[in-house]
């Protein structure tokens, strides 16, 4: 029985076991990892009743904490969402194994043959909030890429994450892989996070997935390298050459499909030539759908649009709220996004190829889209099966972090008694 009171000892034990498991996983066959993930998927579906019962406890906890509707939506699991977890596990299982993939190879005049090949990172610490499906996504992607993982879910999803984790362990054991390859921190105590951030001897990288507060804490206090996942301050710019039907479809889906995810649109920029036509129609549709539109002075002429404050620009609402303003041209739209965006995901709606090319070239968000809902900012929708998060930094992984992004590389050099002159 673990001593849950002695947090430093608890975390040191998790780290040591993860490091040992990582050494075994580094040489595990692709077939065994695939079998583990398929068995885990079977277990999730077979035990869906247990998972939903555990989730009910978390929902009660969330209500007691006064979580917003959007956060409660993030937390909630039903059969359809559990089917999504199962599908994600199977999708990752079916992917090509990235470990050992030859990224490049060449011969030198000296007689050396050199290969650059993918290799696991080692031990990954994943710290996340609310969404219990991250337990499955992160566990699956780390396993597929040959990494051991220490998962620290949010206090809200404590029971759900535990039930899902048990299924991952069942899959590992059935495939003959070490159960310690996927570990879940068994306490809500925040001191466990502080310990994880400093475990440089056993943890190779930290991936935070959550709000600005969590990511800021990790970036400030981690001694272990971090894949940053910043808030999703997502913009959609309706260009002068926007198609009316596409504009309406894209904006409505991007804002209202699920307001609590990081790919949800938070700010709408409308070219001044469209205010009385497409722009008004889109704003009216948002209002009719129950979205609170906080607009600039021009858009406040539309009935029910409220006045935007300076704090609304650059806000991640994660709710049925959107900021909206009129811009003179593409230059002004780009300037606004550069000032207030988070380099996560931004979209242009336009039929003008040159405008789209300029938007793509001049912005440096991890994901840039044209005429497509920003809710596609998701590793599963990118063909990765699942994701740990959207990395917005520029070092190593960027954009959706899937299995391949959880690897590094090493050089394999062959000679034939070759010596250097």
What would a concise description of this structure say?
With 421 residues, the protein is α/β, with parallel strands linked by helices.
Overall outline: globular
Q: Which topology of the largest domain does CATH recognise?
A: Aldehyde Dehydrogenase, Chain A, domain 1
Q: What is the helical fraction, as a range of percent?
A: 40-55%
Strand content: 15-25%
Q: What would you say the CATH architecture of the largest domain is?
A: 3-Layer(aba) Sandwich
Number of helices: 13
Query: How many structural domains does the protein architecture include?
Result: 2
> Regions with pLDDT < 50 over 5+ consecutive residues?
none
Order of helices and strands: HHHHHEEEHEHEHEHEHEHEEEHEHEEEE
Topology, number of strands: 16
CATH class of the largest domain: Alpha Beta
Spatial order of strands in the largest sheet: 10-9-11-8-7-12-13
Mean pLDDT: 94
Structural classification = alpha/beta
Q: Which radius of gyration do the C-alpha atoms yield?
A: 23 Å
Query: How would you characterize the largest beta sheet?
Result: 7 strands, parallel
CATH homologous superfamily classification of the largest domain: Aldehyde Dehydrogenase, Chain A, domain 1
């Amino acid at each position: 029985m673990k001593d849950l009171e002695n947090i430093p000892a608890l975390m040191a034990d998790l780290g040591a076991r993860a490091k040992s498991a990582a050494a075994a996983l580094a040489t595990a066959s692709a077939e065994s990892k695939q079998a583990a993930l398929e068995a885990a998927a079977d277990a999730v579906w077979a035990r869906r009743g247990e998972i939903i019962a555990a989730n009910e406890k978390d929902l009660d906890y969330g209500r007691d904490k006064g979580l917003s509707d959007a956060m409660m939506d993030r937390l909630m699991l039903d059969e359809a969402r559990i089917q999504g977890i199962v599908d994600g596990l199977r999708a990752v299982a079916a992917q090509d194994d990235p470990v050992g993939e030859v990224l490049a190879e060449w011969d030198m005049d000296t007689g050396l043959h050199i290969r650059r090949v993918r290799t696991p990172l080692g031990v990954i610490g994943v710290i996340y909030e609310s969404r219990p499906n991250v337990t499955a996504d992160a566990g699956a992607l780390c396993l597929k890429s040959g990494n051991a993982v220490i998962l620290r879910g949010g206090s809200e999803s404590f029971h759900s994450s535990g039930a899902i984790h048990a299924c991952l362990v069942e899959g590992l054991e059935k495939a003959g892989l070490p159960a310690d390859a996927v570990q879940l921190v068994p306490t809500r105590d925040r001191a466990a996070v502080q310990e994880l951030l400093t475990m440089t001897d056993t943890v190779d990288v930290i991936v935070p997935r959550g709000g600005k507060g969590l990511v800021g804490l990790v970036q400030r206090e981690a001694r272990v390298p971090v894949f940053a996942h910043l808030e999703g301050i997502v913009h959609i710019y309706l260009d002068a050459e926007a198609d009316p039907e596409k504009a309406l479809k894209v904006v409505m889906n991007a804002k209202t499909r699920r307001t609590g995810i990081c790919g949800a649109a938070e700010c709408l920029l409308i070219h001044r030539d469209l205010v009385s036509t497409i722009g008004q129609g889109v704003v009216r549709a948002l209002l009719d759908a129950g979205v609170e539109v906080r607009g600039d002075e021009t858009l406040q002429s539309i009935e029910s649009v409220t006045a935007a404050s300076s704090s609304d620009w650059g806000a991640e609402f994660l709710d049925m709220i959107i900021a909206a303003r009129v811009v003179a041209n593409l230059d002004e739209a780009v300037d606004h996004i550069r000032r207030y965006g988070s380099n996560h995901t931004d979209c242009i709606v336009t039929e003008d190829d040159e405008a789209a090319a300029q938007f793509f070239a001049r912005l440096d968000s991890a994901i840039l889209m044209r005429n497509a809902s920003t809710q596609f900012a998701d590793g599963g929708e990118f063909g990765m099966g699942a994701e740990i998060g959207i990395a917005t930094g520029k070092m190593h992984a960027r954009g959706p972090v899937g299995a391949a992004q959880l690897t590094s590389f090493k050089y394999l050099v062959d000679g034939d008694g070759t010596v250097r002159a």
